[in-house]
Design brief:
Elements (H helix, E strand, L loop, with lengths): L1 H9 L15 E9 L2 H19 L1 E6 L3 E7 L4 E9 L5 E9 L3 H33 L3
Antiparallel strand pairs: 1-5, 2-3, 3-4, 4-5
Helix pairs in contact: 2-3
């Protein structure tokens, strides 16, 4: 139920690396689809670790279907990546950043996360396909 409410709350706010239209201080970015929830979560974790390397993050927490980053760049910036079920039996990654600072800074965070998430998700997809081909004798 929580996933459904969250999905409904962010519908229509999927312009890549653009501030959300409905609420102040929020940036919402569609990170794309991953074949499996585990792939999405691994890509989300890698993206938040990349954010830690580039900007500094006080704490990263991983839950069942979310990865959180707190106090990005030592300031009042927090982010969460959700991995929710999407179309075609895949899992959709969505980044939500809350920041009291300028939107320019939040967009920089979002670009870093988007690039890292997509790169990791693509690697995991290739590995999954290679394993599937090997198992099926292709």
């Amino acid at each position: 139920m929580t996933r459904l409410i969250l999905i409904l709350a962010i519908l229509g706010m999927s312009d890549p690396v653009a501030p959300a239209r409905a609420t102040e201080n929020w940036t919402v970015v569609d990170l794309g689809q991953a074949r499996r929830e585990a792939h999405c979560m691994d890509a989300a974790t890698a993206a938040m670790e990349r954010l830690r390397i580039v900007y500094g993050v006080e704490r990263i927490e991983r839950a069942n279907w979310t990865v959180y980053a707190y106090a990005i760049n030592g300031g009042p910036h927090d982010a969460v990546i959700t991995c929710t079920y999407g179309a075609n039996l895949g899992t959709r990654g969505t980044l939500l950043i809350h920041s009291d600072a300028r939107q320019v800074m939040a967009r920089g965070f979002a670009r870093t996360v988007l690039q890292s998430f997509r790169a990791t998700a693509d690697i995991l997809e290739r590995q999954w396909l290679e394993e599937a081909k090997r198992r099926n004798g292709f």
